[in-house]
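Case 284 in the screening queue. Each case pairs one protein sequence with one candidate compound; here the compound is NAP. For every case the pipeline is the same: read the inputs, emit a complex structure as C-alpha cells, and attach any notable structural observations.

Predict complex for case 284.
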Amino acid sequence: MAVIIDGKELAKKIRGNLKIECDELKKQGIQPKLAVIMVGDNPASKVYVRNKNKACEEIGIEYEEHLLDEHTTQKELNDLIRKLNDTKEVNGILLQSPLPEHLNINEAFKTISYQKDVDGFTPSSVGKLSIGEDTFISCTPYGVMKMLEEYNIDLTGKDVVILGRSNIVGKPLIQCCLSKNATVTVCHSKTQNIKEHTKRADVLIVAIGKAKFVTEDMVKEGAVVIDVGINRTEEGKLVGDVDFENVEKVASHITPVPGGVGPMTVAMLMNNVIKATKEQNKGH
Ligand code: NAP
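Case 284 output:
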C-alpha cells in the first residue's frame, strides 16, 4: 500500500506558520491584503474563491472581492487591474479563471504588476522561473513541489513525467522539476503511446482534467503519483485524473482527491500574498 501524501494536513501546517508571519507583519503596522477579481458567474470558480476567502480569514489576510458582470469589456477589466496595481493597500491581485470567451486572459495577466502577481502568471514571473530567479511560482505547481519536499522525495536524476502542458500547471512544473535536477518528459493530447512514457516515470504528475485517466497498468511499481486533476462524476463525487483505488496498490506514494493538491494550491497562494506584502514593505 502506498503512502498517502496528505495535502490537507500539510496545507494546515503551512497556514499555521503563515498566520504567525501575518501577526508579525500586523505588529509592524502592515496589513496584508488580497484582491480577487471574478468575471461572470462560474459555479466552480465561486467554490474556489470561497476557499481562498476562508483561508485569508484564518490567517488574518484582508480579502476584497471584485465581481464583474459577464459582459465586462477587456478595457474595463484591465482598468480595474491597473487601479488595484496603484492601490497601496492591496498587496496581491488574483484574477480567477476561466474568463468569458470574449476576454483575453493573457492580456489581463500582462496588466497585473509583477510585485502583486501572487498567482505567478505574469510574463515576468514565468520568465524569472525559467531562468531560475526568485519569483512568484504559480500556486498549484508550487504546492506540488512542497509536497514532494515534505515527503523527502528527491528528484535528482529521477524520471519525472508530467501529463498536461497548461500554462498554469504543466508548464511551470517543467521548470520546477528541472530546477530539482529531474529528467522531465511532458505529455499532452497529441502524445503517442502515453503509457510508454508513464510506465517509466519515477514520479508521475497528472494534470489533464480527465476522471480516472491513469490506471494501474500505466504506472511503474514504486512510482510517486501526484494527481492534480479535479473532476466531478455524474453522481457529484470529486475524483482526480488517477484511478486512486487501483493505482494506490502499485505506487510508493500517492495524493488523494480531494485532500491532496487542492488544499496546497490555496496554502501556496496565501504564502505568495505574505511574500508580496513583505517585499512591498522592505525597509519599512
Ligand atoms: P487544461 O488547461 O485544460 O489543460 C489540460 C492539459 O491536459 C492540456 O495540456 C491537454 O493537452 C492535456 N490533455 C487533455 N487530454 C489529454 C489526454 N487524453 N492525454 C494527454 N493529455 C491530455 O487544464 P489545467 O488547467 O492544467 O487543469 C488540469 C486539471 O487539474 C483539471 O482537472 C483542473 O480542474 C485541475 N486543477 C486542479 C488544481 C488544484 O488546485 N488541485 C489547480 C488547477 C487545475 P493539449 O495541450 O494538447 O490540449
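Case 284 observations:
- Residues 140, 163-166, 168-170, 187-191, 194, 207-210, 228-231, 261-262, 265 surround NAP (CB under 6 Å).
- The domain at 28-113 is CATH 3.40.50.10860 (Rossmann fold).
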